[in-house]
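Question thread 4412

I'm putting together a teaching handout and wanted feedback from people who do this every day. The idea is simple: show students a protein as raw sequence, then show them the structure tokens that encode its fold, then repeat with a second protein so they can compare. Below is the first pair exactly as I plan to print it.
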Amino acid sequence: MEQEKSTQIFVDNQAAISITNNPEGEVWLVYCSTKNQYADIFIKALRKAKFDLLRQKLEVCSSTSRMSVNFYDF
């Protein structure tokens, strides 16, 4: 499969961007502030406020706000 355009990788380390060299243009590192790293919700222990903010940005609701489905209703 031919790669049609660069793969974007969002990083919060500007030094990593400045020392990266990809002359073929297959990878494009894009700076993203640490506060906007949505993946942190999956890999870091976060305070409740930060966790709730990232969960909201991912458009994921809390398990207590979802409707329950009873197995025996089917």
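The second pair follows. I'd like the answer to focus on this one:
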Amino acid sequence: MTYGSEAVVPVEIGLTTFRTSTYDDHQNEEQLRLNLDLIDEVRGTAEARMKRYQEKMARHYNSKVKPRQLSVGDLVLRKVTLATRNPSEGEARSKLGRTL
């Protein structure tokens, strides 16, 4: 009920809509079958698009990587995660002061 009057759908009134007047059962079945036939093509297109995107992302990521040769005994800077209490500490500790 809106502003004192109820909304009435055309079916309740008995009027036909463009959609119901132009509906053809045979043509509807044909279109559904055509859509089912074309679904493999749509899937193939989506798969190719996803593969191109993943290759593009891999190229971008790999362009930023700097290859380094490491050997035993080399010093390596370890990144400290946010899980530590104090970011300047090298090892993660719990709030109780003991490690698990």
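Top answer:
Good format. For the second protein you could add a caption like this: The radius of gyration is 32 Å. Residues 96-100 have pLDDT under 50 and may be disordered.
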